[in-house]
Design goal:
CATH topology of the largest domain in chain B: Rossmann fold
CATH superfamily of the largest domain in chain B: ANL, N-terminal domain
Distance between the termini of chain B: 38 Å
Number of domains of chain A: 1
Oligomer: heterodimer
Strand order of the largest sheet of chain B: 2-1-11-10-12-13-14-15-16
Number of helices of chain B: 18
CATH topology of chain A: Non-ribosomal Peptide Synthetase Peptidyl Carrier Protein, Chain A
Number of strands of chain B: 30
Shape of chain B: globular
Radius of gyration of chain B: 24 Å
Shape of chain A: globular
Structural class of chain A: mainly alpha
Mean pLDDT of chain A: 89
Largest sheet of chain B: 9 strands, mixed
Low-confidence stretches of chain A: none
Strand content of chain B: 15-25%
Distance between the termini of chain A: 14 Å
Number of domains of chain B: 2
Helix content of chain A: 40-55%
CATH architecture of the largest domain in chain B: 3-Layer(aba) Sandwich
Number of helices of chain A: 4
Order of helices and strands of chain A: HHHH
Radius of gyration of chain A: 12 Å
Structural class of chain B: alpha/beta
Mean pLDDT of chain B: 94
Strand content of chain A: under 5%
Number of strands of chain A: 0
CATH superfamily of chain A: ACP-like
Helix content of chain B: 25-40%
Amino acid sequence: MSPDIHAIIEQELKLIAPDIDLAAIDPKHDLREECDIDSMDFLSLVTALHRRLGVDVPERDYPKLITLDGATEYLRRKLAEL
Amino acid sequence: MSWDSILKRPEEIARANLRDYDREVTDFSWDQARSLLDGLPDGGLNITYEAVDRHVSHGRGDKIALRWISQENRIRALTYSDLQKLTNKFANVLRSLNFGKGDRVYCLLGRVPDLYIAALGSLKAGAAFCPLFSAFGPEPIKARMSIGEANLLITTERFYRRKLASWRNELGSLRHVVLVDGEDTLPDGTFGLAALMDGASETFNIERTAPEDIALLHFTSGTTGRPKGAVHVHAAVIAHHITGQFALDLHPDDIFWCTADPGWVTGTSYGIISPLTNGTTMIVDQAEFDAERWYRILQDHKVTVWYTAPTAIRMLMKVGSDIVRQFDLSHLRYMASVGEPLNPEAVVWSAKTFGKPFHDNWWQTETGGIMISNYQAMEVRPGSMGKPLPGVEAGIVERHDGQLREITAPSTVGELALRPGWPSMMRAYLHEEERYRKCFADGWYLSGDLAMRDADGYYWFVGRADDMIKSSGHLIGPFEVESALMEHPAVAEVAVIGIPDPVAGEIVKAFVALKAGIASSEELRMELLGHARKRLGPAVAPKEVVFRQNLPKTRSGKIMRRLLKARELGLPEGDISTLESEER
């Protein structure tokens, strides 16, 4: 069974920024603004997702993960390629 | 490990503003620098007049002053003449609200054109302008607005609701809140900027500000106590102007991009004032860091001078050099960096990747402008911050039996100090005479940074002399972070230090001891992390929180941050004779 990527991203986000209200996030909008996280937090998120899912995310692809929907779609595709 | 110096090519030297460093150091005078500006037509000196109106008077009104790139890549270009009219309108709005000389206008905005219009317009009206970083949480905002007795705040509806609405009434000095995106249904007690601007005239008689009148208020953190508001005056523009020419090599035909947010001093001195007084076209990008986007901006907007920060440069290094080759960066002529020391690897990488190095420079909120710098026509020694600007006297000093002694032996570590006298030096910490006085001794301004000077006069950063934390180029005071954590009912004591991070330089880490009877748990750790972020915002809040049963303290009960840090880094613990209560 494939993992629920959306839920995993939310869990990892919550570990970095426990103050965020997941329900209030617009999944099509820049996570940094939606969750009040900075670029360093975003790097931590990508690193955490890499560790959790075993998916390599080259730095060039980081912008593709900048929205919740974008990150979900990107990681789903990458996992399917594994 | 030593690094080879980077030598400059004859064509780089030929076009540089500062071609002969030694001669300029001898010949330079601040009076001469003042004469490069016009002054107000009927006397006085006003930053915005020099930045905007002067160019219109000299027939350069049609030149693009600011090219703004929205998050969605929409472009808005404002000429010097547009900027003159818009800042006149804004100044008229302030007048209509009964604002003028001595009032304090605060701004909490992302990088949108209204921020630039508000900053420059406020200065025209004679008000002091104080920018706040939009990634601050409610507490840093509240502290800075109370200390500076904010009279007016310009912000967005979203920021207002999330960060201000709940406590706004506690701030007696605050007369108005103006929202840049407010339209039909405004929150109670706010105005919409658009409606106010619509009715305002495009002509305005600039307030006749004197050189020593307050213009800007920039907050900086201290190791102890509340943030300090560094007061800067209109005369600072003399330094903004000339240092832009020397250290950033700005020419009127440059397209200049300073990536710093105006919420920090760099984003104001060199992200608003200096590029405009020098008549350049400046680029403003609303979006956050994104390597590919940045290279595209450099290419598409034909950026010639680029001023950014080590954290961004290190992130670009991680993305690698291959991507750079996909862009045409042939217009790029000069690159500079500030915020924290730029590591030699990054300097060498940039020289290899871009065919020219990043030029590191050093200054502080207090100094208002660049003090020590590398230059276009001077050999770069990777890892060095360069040499003092003409007109700036620097030294390495040590305190000895209450006396200050200058260290003249080369490559000896001491505190970096400057002889006050340049125009952009702070004139006070607002309402903090004692803390201001403590910055000076024996005719020196003490920077709090440790550094050394080599035999050829190049300065090298060594570290901070105090417990201040430098994260992503921003100075963070441990006290402000500790205070926010102490507000949590479970916390008995807390110490905050900076720990090394390969990208951010340092990140904020908090050591927390809980009250008796409260057990540590992962849930509580998350709660504290969230608590701190909510109050402080992501730029200031700790990225790591760990529990201790007891924190190391001196006999007088002072927590020894330095010891925690030494242990964290595996360094010698140094003198622990005052240690009374051990870490557990």
